[in-house]
Amino acid sequence: MRITIRPETDTESERDAVREVHRLAFGGDDEARLVDALHEEGFVRLSLVAEIDGEIVGHILFSDLPISSPSGTVPALALAPLAVLPVYQRRGIGSELVRHSLELVRQQGHRIVIVLGHVHFYPRFGFSPELARRLDSPYAGESFMALELVEGALDGVAGAVQYPPPFNAL
Question: Residues 35-57: pLDDT tens digits?
Fold first, then answer.
C-alpha cells in the first residue's frame, strides 16, 4: 500500500472526496461543513490529503487559533479535523498525515499547535494536556492538548484560545 500525501486542491471533485472522507469517518456532516467553512472564510493554513491509488482516503487541516494573553496575541494553529476512511483506519495513514503536516507547519514557521483529540493517539506526536493547562478553551480535560513545534514556545503563555467562528457551529 503506497500512500501519497499532498496538498488539497481547490477543485469541486476533490472537495467532494474530502467531504465524503469526513462524513464516513465521523458518521455525519459536521466536520465536512467545518472544513468547507474554514476554507470559505480564509482560516486554513494547511490542508493535506492522503491518497492510495488515486483515491483520497484521508484528510488533515490546520487553521488559525490565536491565543489572547495579557501581553498580546500569540499565534497558534488548530489541528482539526483529521479523518481517514473507515476501511483504511488503523493502517498508519492518520499517523503519516500528522507527522508530515507537523513538519510542514514547522517549516512554515509556526510554533504552537493545539488539538482536541484522542488521548491515546496524539501524545505519540508530542501533544500534551500539560502544555495546554494554562490555556482557556471551551474544551477542557485530557483531550485538549498542545504541542510546541519550537521548544519553549508556550513558556509563560497563558490566555484564551480563539477558535475561528466556524467551530461554533459544532
Answer: 999 999 999 999 999 999 999 99
In angstroms, rounded to a whole number, what is the distance separating the alpha carbons of residues 29 and 20?
9
Residues of the domain holding 71 = 3-169
* 71: number of Cβ within 10 Å: 9
The CA distance from 39 to 19, in Å, is: 12
Q: Sort strands 77-84 and 112-116 into parallel, antiparallel or unpaired.
A: parallel
The answer to whether the predicted template modeling score (pTM) of the entire model surpasses 0.85 is yes
CA–CA separation, 102 and 46 (whole Å)? 10
Q: Give me the number of domains the chain comprises.
A: 1
Residues 6 or more apart from 146 whose CB is under 8 A from it? 76, 112, 113, 114, 115, 127, 128, 131, 132, 135, 154
